[in-house]
Amino acid sequence: MAWPYCAFVGFFLLGAVVSTAATDAEVDQRVEALLSRMTLDEKIGQMSQSDRLMTPFSDEVRQLIRQGRWGSLFNAGNPAERAEAQRIARTETRLGIPILFGRDVIHGYRTIFPIPLGQAATWDPDIVEQAGRTAAREASAEGIRWTFAPMIDIARDPRWGRIAESPGEDPYLASIFAAAMVRGFQGTSLADPSAIAACAKHFAGYGAAEAGRDYNSTWIAEILLRDVYLRPFHAAVDAGVASFMTSFNALNGVPSSGNEFLLRRILRDEWKFPGLVVSDYQSITEMTLHGYAADARDAAREAANAGVDMEMVSTAYFDHLKSLVSSGAVAGKTIDDAVRHILRLKFLLGLFDAPIPAAQTVTVTPESLAVAQKAATESVVLLKNDQNLLPLSDTVGSLAVIGPMADAPVDQLGTWTIDWRTEDVRTPLAELRQMLGNGRVLYAPGLKTSRDSSHDGFAAARDAADRADAAVLFLGEEQILSGEARSRAFLNLPGAQEELVEEVAKAGKPVVAVIMAGRPLTFHDTAARAGAILYAWHPGTMGGPAIADLLFGRAVPSGRLPVTFPRAVGQVPIYYAHLNTGRPASASELGIPMGTPAKPTGYTSKYIDVDVTPEYPFGYGLSYTNFTYENLRLSAPSVAMGGSLTISADIANRGRREGTEVVQLYIHDVVASVAQPVRLLKGFRRVALKPGEMRTVSFAIRTEDLAFYNQQMKLVTEPGRFEVWIAPDAEHGIKGEFVVK
Ligand code: GLC
């Protein structure tokens, strides 16, 4: 490369580096310059967020915006109102500080993707990132530049309604999901107008709510907190997440919105997180109900000193921070640090410099729908397929389409969807009618809603099944049974759905069950009566095309469970990465039929009325072909501390159809200073194989990947024996061993 060219390239790169570095320095300089001009009232205004006062856009709200009352508005207004509010903030306030508009863009904005639990079931970070990118483009086009996602609370209790929003039970999978969502939402630069700031929530431990009851207490030993619940949040920080949201729960007696251990020790001191911390909805003043703050003033003091930069909805900051600062109970520096985090994010998003975007309304596009369909198709898990009932043959004469979820456009979207348009949603019924022709689809809902307990519609459903060649039942949970404040004490299919299946099965035709739900359910009898079961979570806008393609083999199921399915709610919490205990149940004690009190045998950790193993294990999912795992081999029988070794196996497609297998790597630290789980996921790979094709799949494991928190809270890898599996799920696979020296 000739010198001048080198020089040019060098200058250009240096320029790029300088301009990038300058961006950070420049932002910080602009923050300081603005901060130095702000009054305490203006600072406290930035620390306040509201959701109520936008539609219709009243004169009172206009005036409050002129007074700099809020730094952020969320889940309120329409694009035109947001643009007008921004114009007022930018041109009619003393300092022209823009408003940061936030919204719960959890799994899509106008185009709705599968619920996060379904997206986790894809085990495909690429499609998860694409979904986030699409959502960001749609939301930012309507003036939203901050989403309160990803929700990355580890969830091991399906009674908890918010398991629907979570990436499931495993910190390794959840961490990969978290990073993919952050990349999707934020893109490569927050300054890009299509970028929206992501928000890692709910920090922390929220998914461990006792008894699966939302907002309930969480008692988590620090080792478990660090090893399991904090890992996805750390991954989000490593991925550059712009903000955090505190959680409603008290963690070990201290509400997260006043928890210095979380917000200063972990988030700022250990992880060096530079971004913004927002409370959850009124979670600051709720500290009085927790019995942690005496009143709203005390709550404001606790939250500000713990490190909550912005208060969502409640007004403790607005009402009390000024006097708390004058009394010295809250230092001026604390306020300035909070406002720095807020202003910095606004500068990084370009809100001060970009022209106020004209109000526009987005619509779904072929591209956004294609991403939604791919995500929905990959999210569906095939749980059962006796005698290869699926895929159905195109020659099937007529199909009975039955159940409350067959044509439920809102319910199939799942929880936390705000900006969908019903006319965009493609339901299974509509898709099957289009695919087969109306005459070949015999539709009978059987039940009006998933909670309907009336048998009035059963006769028509049975009649449809009698007249058809096969029956597909669309079952599950309607939207309002899932999500926040939707904890359930039972996990059965709601209403009379099991009875509906029983009635339809009497027709003696092949029965396929498609279950759309926001959590693992128990459906033992339905599972016995159906020849095949597809678990579709809440699949979003394109649930219909995705399911229709899978039913007829235009697509092959590749979803794998991101969460363990119990046989009975009494087994909860149930998860694969459990400890062995000193008295593990022996194989002879397994296989106890549901609800049959067995003769109590040994003194082991079992139930006497149900098999102690799950109905379906973590990582489980079938295909329309079958894969074999052979020839597990390691690059060496041992590895020195600080080194790495490679674990390989040959995966072959032994069936007649192409399929995608999710090859999983698990390890078990056999003896350690803190007892370790019987298995831990440490890697996975989606592998598409044609019939007869074999692929060697290899994983590199470094000794640091085997680290766990010891009793001194140090992240350590200890020498000793390790078992390793390359596996199709958390209960099976081929096994090897190695030693860390
Ligand atoms: C809710 C949720 C939180 C959401 C916030 C704003 O109560 O806990 O996840 O982002 O309030 O809607």
Give the end-to-end Cα distance, rounded to a whole number of Å: 47 Å
What is the percentage of strand-forming residues? 15-25%
Task: Give the class-level CATH name of the largest domain.
Answer: Alpha Beta
Structural class: alpha/beta
How many domains make up the 3D coordinates? 4
Number of strands: 26
| Low-confidence region ranges | 1-22
Helices and strands in order:
Layout: H1 3-35, H2 40-46, E1 48-50, H3 59-66, E2 72-74, H4 79-91, E3 100-103, H5 116-120, H6 125-141, E4 146-147, H7 171-186, E5 199-203, H8 222-229, H9 231-238, E6 243-246, E7 250-251, E8 254-255, H10 260-270, E9 276-278, H11 286-290, H12 296-306, E10 311-312, H13 316-327, H14 332-348, H15 366-379, E11 381-385, E12 399-402, H16 428-436, E13 441-444, H17 458-467, E14 470-476, H18 497-505, E15 511-516, H19 524-529, E16 532-535, H20 543-551, E17 627-634, E18 638-639, E19 644-653, E20 659-669, E21 680-689, E22 694-702, E23 708-709, E24 715-716, E25 720-727, E26 734-740
Alpha-D-glucopyranose (GLC) binds next to loops.
Written overview of the protein:
This protein has 741 residues and is α/β, with parallel strands linked by helices. The chain folds into 4 domains: 11-40 and 106-342, Alpha-Beta Barrel (TIM Barrel); 41-103, no CATH class; 371-551, 3-Layer(aba) Sandwich (Rossmann fold), CATH 3.40.50.1700; 627-740, Immunoglobulin-like (Sandwich), CATH 2.60.40.10. Helix content is 31%, strand content 17%. It contains 20 helices and 26 strands.
